[in-house]
Amino acid sequence: MNNDAELSILVIDDEEKFRGLMFDLLERNLPQVRIAETSNGAEGLEAMKTESFDCVILDYKMPHKNGLQVLTEAREAGIEVPIIIMTGAGDEQIAVELMKAGASDYLPKQDLTGDAISRTIRSAVALRKSEQKREQAERELLEKTLIGAVTTLIDILGLVNPIALTRAARIKRYVHLMATHLELPDSWQFELAAILSQIGFVLIPPDLLTRSYEGSQLSEAELRMLETPPGIASTLISRIPRLESIAQIIEAVQQPYHGETVNEMIRSGDTAVLGGHILNVAIEFDRLVEQGMDMEAILEQLRLRQVTYDPELFAALGSLKLDVKDLKVKSVGVRDLKVGMEFSEDVFTGDGTLLATKDQEITLPMLRRLHTYAEGVGVLEPIWIKTPPAS
To answer: What are the angstrom distances between the C-alpha of 139 and each of 72, 79, 193?
Structure first.
């Protein structure tokens, strides 16, 4: 430690005489250190839960709650501060148990000196700081990997089935607005599930998805095909670390509704069922919007299906604004396209293959794909994109 002034130490011991000795040793060997004390394990645990310490000195032999019990409860509560246990003579076996239970180190009281205690504290605090840096680095790496994996999945969806990606963006918006209206905690997981729920549609022909949204007559085989994407998406996403809960929400889309209200689902803490139900409503809402219905007609349609959808969500849906952005459009060539632009019309290749859909945002992979097709079979131009209105 280069800066002893930053150290804050808690001493937990039932003997006032020993606490006084510890104060004296710490103040003489670790200048300007802030020291707090408690006379029993229960008070010590409460202090660790409510205050921040760099290190804890904990006596093993105390009445009511000994050092091992305090240590165990602290670790079970998620308290990771370094804890050094003070043991008596002949407690070597106990010391082994203490280390297994999460003690940072131990010192026999009969060998206690200022140099020994200061050296042990410095070592324990330095080790904890090193562990924190390593844990932070691992978290950042995992988060970058997770973000990269999700981004790649979304890019693949946009390249293979642009209709599904555009649909996913709309569904995410509806889920966000419903979750905000209901003041749901951790709404990000519902929004992420909305986007990733459409990954399974990479296996569905775009024209089939379009016809299903238009309400066209579909064969039994086509209807069965449209039932598979949620299961495919859930299976794929469950293999990505930290996305297991998202996979469960997507899987819950296929679960039947048993009449639970939103409030009941919130109270039960069943995030997967709640998320799946909200996502189900958003998907059906989007389908009705795309058929050209106004809000009043959509809500009436949903009210007729109260066996399928929780009526409590209708108020949230009623708060949505089916507004149209005041955007103008202009025509450009492939070479004029930039990442972040939005198409105002579908984009096709020279031989009629759909490359992108209306309202789809241009990503870097999409831009590269358009350039590749432009150099090959060609891309039909002009391409119509949205532009902000003049200021």
So the answer is: 26, 19, 21
Sequence-ordered list of residues with C-beta below 8 angstroms from that of 63, at least 6 positions apart, any chain? 14, 40
CA 198, CA 191: separation in Å to the nearest integer?
Answer: 12
> Which tokens is 322 given?
């089916």
Cβ pair 260, 310 in contact under 8 A: yes
Does this model's pTM top 0.85? My answer is: no
Query: Domain limits of the chain?
Result: 4-134, 161-323, 325-391
pLDDT: is 25 or 242 the higher one? 25
**Residue 307: which residues within 8 A CB-CB, separation 6 or more?**
257
Q: Answer yes or no: CATH 3.30.390.30 is held by domain 4-134.
A: no
What one-character-per-residue DSSP string does 42-90 give? Answer: HHHHHHHHHS--SEEEEES--SSS-HHHHHHHHHHTT--S-EEEEE-TT
Specify whether the CB–CB gap between 232 and 253 falls below 8 A.
Answer: no
> What fold, for 325-391?
Molybdopterin biosynthesis moea protein, domain 2 (3.90.105)
Q: Of 158, 287, 301, 297, whose CA–CA distance to 211 is shortest?
A: 287
Q: How far apart are the first and last CA of the chain?
A: 57
Q: State the pLDDT at residue 325.
A: 45
In 3-state terms, what secondary structure has residue 94?
Answer: helix
CB 319 within 8 A of CB 181: yes
d(CA 193, CA 179): 13
Q: How far is CA 267 from CA 245, 253, 256, 271, 274, in A?
A: 18, 20, 19, 10, 10
Three-class SS of 163-230: HHHHHHHHHHHHHHHHHHHCCCCCCHHHHHHHHHCCHHHHHCCHHHHHHHHHCCCCCHHHHHHHCCHH
Q: Which residue has the higher pLDDT, 46 or 90?
A: 46
pLDDT for residue 2 is more than 50: no
* 219-225 contacts at long range (C-beta below 8 A, 24 or more positions apart): none
Under CATH, which architecture does the 161-323 domain have? Orthogonal Bundle (1.10)
